[in-house]
Amino acid sequence: xxxxxxxxxxxxxxxxxxxxxxxxxxxxxxxxxxxxxxxxxxxxxxxxxxxxxxxxxxxxxxxxxxxxxxxxxxxxxxxxxxxxxxxxxxxxxxxxxxxxxxxxxxxxxxxxxxxxxxxxxxxxxxxxxxxxxxxxxxxxxxxxxxxxxxxxxxxxxxxxxxxxxxxxxxxxxxxxxxxxxxxxxxxxxxxxxxxxxxxxxxxxxxxxxxxxxxxxxxxxxxxxxxxxxxxxxxxxxxxxxxxxxxxxxxxxxxxxxxxxxxxxxxxxxxxxxxxxxxxxxxxxxxxxxxxxxxxxxxxxxxxxxxxxxxxxxxxxxxxxxxxxxxx
Amino acid sequence: xxxxxxxxxxxxxxxxxxxxxxxxxxxxxxxxxxxxxxxxxxxxxxxxxxxxxxxxxxxxxxxxxxxxxxxxxxxxxxxxxxxxxxxxxxxxxxxxxxxxxxxxxxxxxxxxxxxxxxxxxxxxxxxxxxxxxxxxxxxxxxxxxxxxxxxxxxxxxxxxxxxxxxxxxxxxxxxxxxxxxxxxxxxxxxxxxxxxxxxxxxxxxxxxxxxxxxxxxxxxxxxxxxxxxxxxxxxxxxxxxxxxxxxxxxxxxxxxxxxxxxxxxxxxxxxxxxxxxxxxxxxxxxxxxxxxxxxxxxxxxxxxxxxxxxxxxxxxxxxxxxxxxxx
DNA sequence: GCCCACTATGACAACGTTGTCCCCCAGCGG
DNA sequence: CCGCTGGGGGACAACGTTGTCATAGTGGGC
Lengths: 327, 327
Description:
Chains A, B: This is LacI family transcriptional regulator. The structure is a homodimer. Chain A is 43% helix and 16% strand. By secondary structure, chain A is α/β, with parallel strands linked by helices. Chain A has 3 domains: 2-44, Orthogonal Bundle (434 Repressor (Amino-terminal Domain)), CATH 1.10.260; 57-156 and 286-316, Rossmann fold (3-Layer(aba) Sandwich), CATH 3.40.50.2300; 158-283, Rossmann fold. A 6-stranded parallel beta sheet of chain A has the order 2-1-3-4-5-11, sandwiched between helices. Chain A has a 6-stranded mixed beta sheet with strand order 7-6-8-9-10-12, with helices on both faces. At the A-B interface, helix 4, helix 5, strand 2, helix 6 and helix 7 of A face helix 4, helix 5, strand 2, helix 6 and helix 7 of B.
């Protein structure tokens, strides 16, 4: 800006006026300034601007588990979309379920003075955010609640979903329904396990410890688990999968197996309807989740200071016929 | 920082020293400062720091087509990964194939003084980046080349891939091979069309205009196209799909159809192997693409100023048996 | 007791902007 | 000719840091 001013033979303040379309600059001066800007390839430094104006940095921080997972990339897309409408950029990072990494990312974003934070919690401790929140940075937790702070949260109906999954299977005559879930210290995994248990009880088929296998899972652990479930005295005839990754592992493990158990997966995924058999899922909308959370965040930025809200988005069972019938 | 200094009864410089772990602060003073920092929930302002130090902002800008597309979210993940290792945050945005939006995003990132830019070009004009590049911001183009500037570029072997796809189908006896590609003004779409044409010529089956349908495509246009291809006097017996979205549209359109043409899709996708029939694809690695581009970017940041490079990543045909055999 | 080296600390400028205030000067009415 | 007005423009401070340099005190060697 200094260089531009020198080249145009004016003061930097005048350049600033031109750049900001402020009135009170003679057209011919403005033209000279614009020419200089063009010639030097000047672009105003947004950091300096925001620093000086003490205004918003125009950024939103997004901490999620893994952008590579289609579910979270759907969330990211929705967040980006709304942020764009409100003139914000999104800075994002993946925690990989590591609470330390989550914290590191969140605090880094705070140091960058993001206008707000969207967090898919990896850990259970979020008191590290209290100073920031007190200082006025709105924080919305996504998909999972915060461990030890009260804040806006957007969840999906994990319990209701798994209850429905079990009910669905039981209504087709299944009595031995297994549950493969993620690591039990993950909120959603635990909730879904609770839903599974409740569903079993409600359906009158009882809860049997040996039908449950919590993760962390990988392809081979799923394979082993399925073998165990199959070789029991009373084998499982149906499976509820705790998330999209586990569903895929199960599908891989079952490929080519003649006697397939019925399967209902939590999280919808692309092509689920084109597999044979198509996969029944408990669907919830990644972009709805992202949108709800971002809307909440912007409401806070717009001055809403009502008590923290907890939004629970509905899920719906999408029956596609993955083996339920021939139980 | 001012407040911290006042509370601790020291100068702001001393606070700065403590925050930056600089030597020459008496332990007891440091302790007082740390206590004040803790009490006030102080977090240093990274923008101000970077402004003052004139150093890197520790950010990388990533402009892609759509984070929601699994291919690009794979790229994003890889970029993030490497950026993390090098202590950078990623700011990303989706252009949706809109050149204006691409430009807007890229320039916004420049205003934020990103250390480098990774761009999946939506348009053909990138001279708007020349001032930035001359000012020292490294730019790497990803997946598609820049229109009118010379810069580092990482591509995949689009032509080789489609040639191989056609060759593969022809070797199974197909002579009427169709091509459904994206809008022809998209570089990759055009390249793949060229590959298709070349493959046809090489295979001695000739290039027939009526077997080609370039996009933009949606589910219904694909459906219509397939009907047209099927009801020709000499129907197409095989299809090459120009990208993962089109492949999925085709799969949807073909669901339940008895006489399916053979299919080879460009871009691998999850579950392709579990469909029936499994889908043969030309695979290339999103994360390899992201990694190669980011590595190139960091090489530039490390001072490499050799002439711009163009890296072409290999693709490989993954035969899965999507109908090639019963031609 | 004197000087030196060294430690601990602070004052001040500067990074690139913008907000505030002030100045210069042309034009105009009296 | 004076004073006023208003448009065009500049000087300067400040945003929150950090780099540079200065300074006060302290202890040791002579």
